[in-house]
Amino acid sequence: MSETYRDAGVDLAAATMAKALMGAAVRSTHSPAVLAGMGAFGGCFDAGVALQGLRDPVLVSSTDGVGTKTLVATALRRYETVGQDLVNHCINDILVQGARPLFFLDYVASARLDPVQIATIVEGVATACRATGCALLGGETAEMPDVYVEGAFDLAGTIVGVVERAQLLPRTDLAPGDAVLALPSTGLHTNGYSLARRIAARDGYAARPAVLGGASIGEALLAVHRCYLREVEALRNAVTVKGLAHITGGGLFDNLPRILPKGMGATITRGTWPIPPIFTYLVEQGRLAEHEAYHALNMGLGMLVVLAPEEVSAALAAVPEACHVGVITDRAEVVLVD
């Protein structure tokens, strides 16, 4: 009897069905700048249209994934949000350098392709792209039965954005005494899930501990990773933003120093921003030391903004939910203080 690709675990018909199901969502993100998208061997984007009016454009790119948050989505059979997580994470990463998004490409892989599941994930990607004017230019759907565990999937993506060279961040004039503002997070975003899953396993995703105010642990863990594009644009229109730090893997202690000049650090004052209840649950149930919590998790600090101290009032007027949480120092460390 002859062998088939399907016998080996790869169903080409399922891949075709998935592409058909996601097609409308993908096309809904396209603008006149998209010359070739889904179905083409390579996506084509008209740079002349996208970069029109820019004097000295710099392209900024980033690749990332959503990590083991996919396992929470699989356990709860909720796939509509992880695509948004992916896009928003990548937008925030290039936003830190001052860029706005142009186009995005996604990668979804699993042991066995479920067309509805894959289409739902990609529709989430398209939802976030539409919300930010970012074209979903293409991607890859891979079925790899000997690489991925049955029932699991992986999700990653690449973004390309643009910024005027003169507006690149961080600026070179960051200095001790500059203020640090925080834009709050909605939860874990896309980092710390290996630790969070280990702690949450004790109660289970369906549990509704009192500290979560009626939400289940699973619901709290699937809270969508915020995109800060709108808030950062409002800040840059109101004040001179000197630097931005997206608080992702490595938390406060690893990410803020990435944008600071050598020899500088910061003091961050406890109690100056709201901490989402899911962090309280994880810290208490996991008995996490403070340094571990702020290293593995964002602890409510989604995006940090550095600006001159005299501009704090204007910044808070432009984005009222921002919190004044700290100050840049001349010591090469980030510390929490009371």
Describe what this molecule looks like in 3D.
Keywords: ATP-binding, Cytoplasm, Ligase, Nucleotide-binding, Purine biosynthesis. Belongs to the AIR synthase family. It catalyses: 2-formamido-N(1)-(5-O-phospho-beta-D-ribosyl)acetamidine + ATP = 5-amino-1-(5-phospho-beta-D-ribosyl)imidazole + ADP + phosphate + H(+). With 338 residues, this protein is an alpha+beta fold. The protein folds into 2 domains: 156 residues, PurM-like, N-terminal domain (60s Ribosomal Protein L30, Chain: A, 2-Layer Sandwich); 159 residues, PurM-like C-terminal domain (Phosphoribosyl-aminoimidazole Synthetase, Chain A, domain 2, Alpha-Beta Complex), CATH 3.90.650. Helices cover 33% and strands 24% of the residues. It contains 12 helices and 12 strands. The protein has a 6-stranded mixed sheet with strand order 8-10-7-11-9-12. A 4-stranded mixed sheet has the order 3-6-4-5, covered by helices on one side. α5 links the parallel β4 and β5. It is globular and about 60 Å long. The model has no long low-confidence stretch (mean pLDDT 92).
